[in-house]
Amino acid sequence: MTKVIIIGSGNVAQHLIAAFQNSQKMGAEIELVQVFSRQIESVSHLLDLSQITNDLNTLIEADLYIIAISDDAIAAISSQLPFKNRLVVHTSGSVPLNVLDDNNRKGVFYPLQTFTKNKPVDFRTIPICLESENATDYQLLDKVAKSISDKIFAINSEQRKALHVAAVFVNNFTNHLYQIGQEICQEHQVPFEILNPLITETAQKIMLLSPSEAQTGPAKRNDTATIEAHEAFLSKENHLAIYKTLTQSIQHNGKKL
Questions:
Q1: Boundaries of each DUF2520 domain copy (predicted)?
Q2: Backbone angles phi, psi at 134, to 5 degrees
């Protein structure tokens, strides 16, 4: 049985806890033996209290320690671990492997998904990007990852940085555009839910087409009259600035600006 400890209690940590618990129920040879949380009550609804600690010095021996905390705290926490030569990984998309303390063997266990508190996800569909310093540790990470997901990728730190930047564009920035769309609808008493089928179809199209092939709209058609009308309509300066920037980007796609 491969023993796993999770260090952290935020969104990623809680979803990992649920994923490992589900895999155990399905007979996987992976056991979540302990969770570290500064506030025990943060995860007490997920685990028996005997499995939770708020003291790093009481961490028990395990095959894998997964640090699932904010990016800025990873280096500090890894340096405080009271043991040596064990496999310690983090779950960040933007932090390189080498920020982990040299006292232990290093790796990355990065689930590429947006996680929201109390919103369940199907972890089997989530890509997990793995990195390690040696082949033996990678094999262990691969085994653990496959117990909760069907999509495993070997991704180095530089590739992971590129993935994380791309993820910010397709997720965080896109969600912000949803917010702008909602604000425009609310300002003019239009139900935002009218846009839901369009949002769904837009996301589904790129499963079949490349984003460049799926691109439509006035900027793609170079419909100057419509673009000018939209710009005149937008009353908020930041909305107008974003509209102009994205329109120019679409119009000059593949060309030098």
A1: 126-250
A2: -145, 165
107 pairs with which residues across the strands? 89, 132
CB 148 within 8 A of CB 22: yes
Annotate 212-249 with b (16+ C-beta within 10 A) or e (fewer). Answer: eeeeeebbeeeeeeebeebeeebeeeebeebbeeebee
The pLDDT profile of the chain, 257 residues, written as one tens digit per residue, is 999 999 999 999 999 999 999 998 888 899 999 999 999 999 999 999 999 999 999 999 999 999 999 999 999 999 999 999 999 999 999 999 999 999 999 999 999 999 888 888 899 999 999 999 999 999 999 999 999 999 999 999 999 999 999 999 999 999 999 999 999 999 999 999 999 999 999 999 999 999 999 999 999 999 999 999 999 999 999 999 999 999 999 999 856 54
The phi and psi torsions of 202 (rounded to 5 degrees) equal -60, -45
Extract the tokens encoding 24.
């155990």
Rg of the chain over CA atoms, in angstroms? Answer: 22
Contact 129, 112 (CB under 8 A): yes
Q: If you search the block for the tokens 């997990």, which residue do you land on?
A: 128
Q: What is the DSSP letter of 252?
A: T
Rounded to the nearest 10 degrees, the angle between the axes of helix 237-251 and helix 174-187 is 130
Contacts of 32 (CB under 8 A, 6+ apart): 4, 5, 6, 17, 20, 21, 24, 51
The two structure tokens encoding residue 256 = 């030098």
